[in-house]
Design goal:
seven-stranded mixed β-sheet; 50% helix; Calcium-transporting ATPase, cytoplasmic domain N; alpha+beta; Calcium-transporting ATPase, cytoplasmic transduction domain A
């Protein structure tokens, strides 16, 4: 049996798109190509995100299909997609600026001549001279694009602009060259050169402001990419350093990171010690101490020390590159509401042309003395005012702004659908380990470690142990311990620590691993036991009342208790220390859960851990609904059960065992420091370990959807009100007729207002 063709997902820049109907045409052309599985074309980013079978379809065939529809697809070389798009945007913005400036220079005197000297015999000829470059040179793109669309039997915004300004210009040329045609019939020949030129100028102004604003919505990508340096210091085989471009760095290269420099690639410290600012990746403001063996991430900033590191992931494999790629794909994806908008936009232009022609016919039939002129003006004005740009930009610009805002706040959103759906969450299911808790055992509290001898002996023994809990003890007692973090509900008593740092100078002369119980070791002739209560009982070591009382409190909190006892002789045996170990609750967990509950969301916790441990953690963070000792398939079934009850369910997890439940959930959220599989399945990833990011993500969803609705409302209401007025609906009541110049200005303003409204999201605070 032959293997299924591999599905590829690629994002390509598209040129020639100007409005929402363009999006529909490009999507239709790509979707009709054999081998294409899915496509989403985005006007705000001018990109097409295509999922296709690589064995059935080549990129050249995709390009040919788009070209056949009157547009073009850029095939990036050497992975320079972002550079290509940015260069394209910069060139387009520069050309628009030049055209706009020249159009304004000619349009201003044109308007003055047309309004002040309209009755002078020379006026039409001067207006013709001034208007021709504006309409036929600076507005040339509208006529060329309209012709391309006509050849493919379609229409877009350029069709409306070309028809309206073209009709006004040709009509004015005829009236200038052959005024006798009208005077012989007792009518004064009017010219509308200024209307045609000013409409072109306003549309160019709108396009210029729109392009500049659209570039602003992708600033998050540029900020992320700017975190990575362009050059690095690489160590040669003879121990010297050389400065090389970042794209020349290979896996296993040894790099030197000086104080104040950004780290270029993902890797591991092999020498040196320094604090590293990881806030741009993790969102956590406190710099993290990095010593030998610690991981480093591209885009983070080295503080005061110098580090030598081995490169492990370079180029597109780094976490920073993955974040950039995910944000780009998300910004190019399409929200469900946009599907409807695109369908409306596809038929919008033909309907508008029909309305324009109909309004002209009505004027010519019932318009009286100036019927032809008024009908022509109505035709032009309707075509000008009904630009579908605002409609096409309403959703994608808001989505882009939302994705960028999310990335800045440590919320990596993989598709627009998740961003739109998150606002409706009614139930959220949290995994315990790695989500509510840190995911690794830590020393929570201790008794008896205030004596230097005891602490040093315990450190020496646990340093040789392979037990998972021994690592927590070593980390706690080591000369450079990590700051102790405790979640809500852990004991408020300060941990007893040795006044002097324990040392590893104590030599262990005998070491025995007692499987399932602990270890037995000899130091300087003294025997020590480290392990469970059962180990102490089997060796005749009694526990005094103060320790038993503390043990009871620890067990109620579901902590694991490690005992440390000394046996100098058969009769001289006693407990010297006791340590409580648990998977530490994240400091932000209780606050985040309270915020979710306050927002009316039901919070559930499920875990494969024991009932007592699960209930202790749930009590500490304020969760009422707890499920313990569950298997991965049980987690997924529980999510399905909540959905059947009518809930919109979000699942938050970090492990492979959560992946099935994540796939089932309406909104799937992975913790960024979890497994790769969980992050692949989830549609949102929280880069930070701060659980307050979850209510922030929901707030972001609500604000983004509110923006989309505002944008769509104004885009639709603008056309619903504007088109009838342009057609002359108010004339029978108050004699009002809309000037084509005002219609052009209004059309430009509608697009700019939609984009500007979306950009407001950049300054909104996400308080959760």
């Amino acid at each position: 049996m032959s293997a299924e063709p591999a599905l590829l997902k690629r994002s390509y820049p598209v040129t020639g798109m100007t409005c929402a109907s363009c999006v529909a045409h490009v999507e239709k052309a790509i979707r009709a190509t054999e081998g294409v599985d899915d496509v989403a074309v985005n006007l705000a980013t001018n990109t097409a995100q295509v999922t296709f079978h690589g064995q059935d379809l080549t990129e050249a065939q995709l390009k040919a299909a788009v070209q056949a529809s009157g547009y073009d697809l850029l095939i990036p070389e050497d992975g320079k997609t972002t550079e290509d798009v940015e260069a394209l945007q910069a060139d387009r913005l520069k050309a628009l600026k030049q055209k706009l400036f020249a159009s304004i220079v000619l349009s201003v005197p044109l308007v003055i001549v047309g309004m002040v000297y309209m009755h002078a015999s020379w006026s039409p000829w001067v207006q013709w001279i001034l208007a021709t470059p504006v309409v036929l040179v600076f507005g040339r793109q509208f006529f060329l694009n309209a012709w391309k669309q006509a050849k493919h039997r379609s229409a877009n915004m350029d069709t409306l602009v070309a028809l309206s300004t073209g009709v006004a210009y040709v009509f004015s040329v005829f009236n200038t060259a052959y005024p006798a045609f009208w005077t012989a019939r007792g009518l004064e020949p009017h010219v509308y050169f200024e209307a045609a030129a000013v409409v072109i100028t306003f549309i160019l102004l709108g396009k210029f402001l729109e392009e500049r604003a659209k570039a602003g919505t992708s600033s998050a990508i540029k900020k992320l990419m700017g975190l990575r340096p362009n050059t690095v210091l690489r160590e040669t085989k003879n121990g010297q350093t050389e400065q090389v471009a970042i794209d020349q760095v290979n896996v296993d290269d040894i790099l030197v990171v000086r104080p104040g420099e950004s780290i270029a690639v993902d890797g591991v410290v092999i020498d040196g010690e320094s604090y590293v600012d990881e806030s741009m990746i993790s969102g956590e403001p406190i710099p993290v101490l990095k010593t030998k063996g610690e991981g480093l991430l591209a885009g983070t900033i080295n503080q005061k020390g110098s580090l030598r590191m081995t490169a492990q992931k370079v180029g597109a494999a780094t976490l920073l590159a993955q974040i950039v790629r995910t944000v780009q794909e998300a910004q190019g994806s399409k929200a469900p509401v946009q599907q409807l908008v695109d369908k409306v936009a596809a038929i919008f232009v033909p309907i508008v042309i029909g309305i324009a022609v109909l309004s002209a016919i009505v004027w010519w039939t019932f318009g009286g003395e100036h019927a032809f002129t008024q009908g022509l003006l109505a035709l032009v004005t309707v075509l000008v005012i009904a630009c579908p740009c605002a409609l096409g930009l309403a959703t994608p610009t808001a989505i882009m702004a939302g994705m960028g805002k999310g990335a800045e706040n440590g919320i990596l959103i993989k598709d627009a659908e998740s961003l739109e759906r998150a606002r409706n969450i009614t139930a959220i299911v949290l995994d315990k380990t790695g989500t509510i808790t840190e995911g690794k055992p830590d020393v929570i509290e201790a008794m008896g470690l205030d004596e230097h001898e005891v602490a040093s002996a315990l450190l020496a023994i646990e340093s040789r142990s392979t037990h998972p809990l021994a690592e927590a003890v070593v980390r706690f007692l080591s000369p450079h311990p990590q700051p102790l973090s405790r979640g809500e509900g852990s004991s408020s008593r300060a941990v007893d620590r040795a006044t002097d740092q324990p040392t590893t100078n104590y030599q262990v002369s005998a070491f025995h691993d007692l499987t399932g119980k602990g270890v037995k070791a000899t130091i300087n002739g003294t025997t020590w036991f480290v392990g469970s209560r059962r180990l102490l009982e089997e060796n005749g070591i009694s526990i005094d009342a103060s320790y038993r009382e503390k043990e009871k409190a620890w067990q109620e909190a579901a902590y694991t208790v490690i005992w440390f006892a000394e046996a100098r002789t058969e009769r001289n045996r006693s407990v010297r220390a006791a340590i409580a170990i648990a998977d530490t609750i994240k400091p932000s967990a209780a606050e985040a859960i309270a915020r979710l509950q306050k927002a009316g969301i039901q919070v559930y916790m499920q875990t494969g851990d024991t009932r007592r441990t699960a209930e202790a953690v749930a009590k500490a963070v304020g969760i009422d609904h707890v499920r313990s000792e569950v298997l991965p398939k049980d987690k997924a079934a529980f999510v399905t059960g909540l959905q059947q009850q009518g809930h919109v369910v979000a699942m938050v997890g970090d492990g492979i065992n959560d992946s099935e439940a994540l796939a089932k959930a309406d909104v799937s959220i992975a913790m960024g420091k979890g497994s790769d599989i969980a992050m692949d399945v989830a549609r949102m990833t929280l880069i930070s370990t701060d659980l307050n990011t979850i209510p922030r993500a929901i707030t972001l969803s609500r604000k983004t959807v509110r923006l989309i609705r505002q944008n769509l409302f104004w885009a639709f209401i603008y056309n619903i009100i504007g088109i009838p007025i342009a057609a002359g609906l108010l004339y029978p009541f108050n004699g009002f007729l809309l000037n084509p110049m005002i219609a052009g200005a209004a059309m430009a303003f509608s697009s700019v207002s939609v984009v500007s409204n979306s950009l407001r999201l950049k300054w909104v605070r996400l308080e959760g």
